[in-house]
Give the backbone structure.
Amino acid sequence: MSTLPAARIFLGLNAAFSVISGLALLFVSSSIAQMMFTDPGDWKATILLGLGIGLLVFALDLVMLATNPYVSKSEVMLIVIADIGWIAVSAVLILFFGDLFTSNGILAISVVATFVALFAIGQFVGAQKIVPPVPHVDFRREGGGLVATVKRKVNAPVETVWDVMNDHPGYADVASNIAKVEVLSGDGVGMKRRCYGPKGENWEETCDRFEDGRAYGFRIHTEAQDYPYPFADLRGLWSVEPSGSGSEFSIEIAVKPKGNIILRSLFAPTAIWKFKPILVDLADAWAARMESKSKSNRVARGRSGK
């Protein structure tokens, strides 16, 4: 279940307001300084310019959260805390340093703080209604790359889960980022398959780990000249184990990006924002297929009297 829209709507409004305010401070900081301060100086315009840059960076973070269908309550509450900090600083400036500002300056600070307060209230109320997705997704940085893991409990026996996991062509039916999977050759370690993306892009993978009934792993041939994505290394591990009366499966994706140090440093936050909804939707769709097959197996056994 994706996040209810209220929190994301107010995050989006907050982002739009921050972009407008940031651009104004960036391009007309001197004029704004003249309007706000009783004694405008070059350094005050410079402060406003820096504030504008900060607001644009803050807006980028807000956009990433607002467009994440699985934004968490804690992520939204961090924004609420930041907004409360803005309101508190605004109150301090007006109450204790009011002589530095013109009447228009005090009015501008008050109006901005009022909008921020509205965003904070909307985000806070929306955050209380957020229900975390059933799949548990973790990210960790490792060896210059990123490791993403999603785990999902499922009401189906290990044998059924394993059968669904080994349906390689069927993987494309549950993975939103994959349109088709072809088994090229082999079985177990050394097996080769080709995956196709939604735009027809494709790549080859080789199974480099296989534990029958429990786990398998694939290494993606990122070194191939026709590999379509900017990854230097990409590996996946799919596994299942008993959990209570059912099972728990997990998918672990380890990826290292290509590019210079700047591109690599930007990779982790961007990848987390993009990968999380894909992994959550994949785990939910896979679990639904596993539970459906388990139910069908139980019905079939009941009809046969076994």
Observations:
- Strands lie at 136-142, 145-154, 180-185, 192-196, 202-211, 215-220, 231-243, 246-257.
- Helices lie at 5-27, 29-36, 42-66, 73-96, 103-128, 158-165, 171-174, 261-304.
- The radius of gyration is 26 Å.
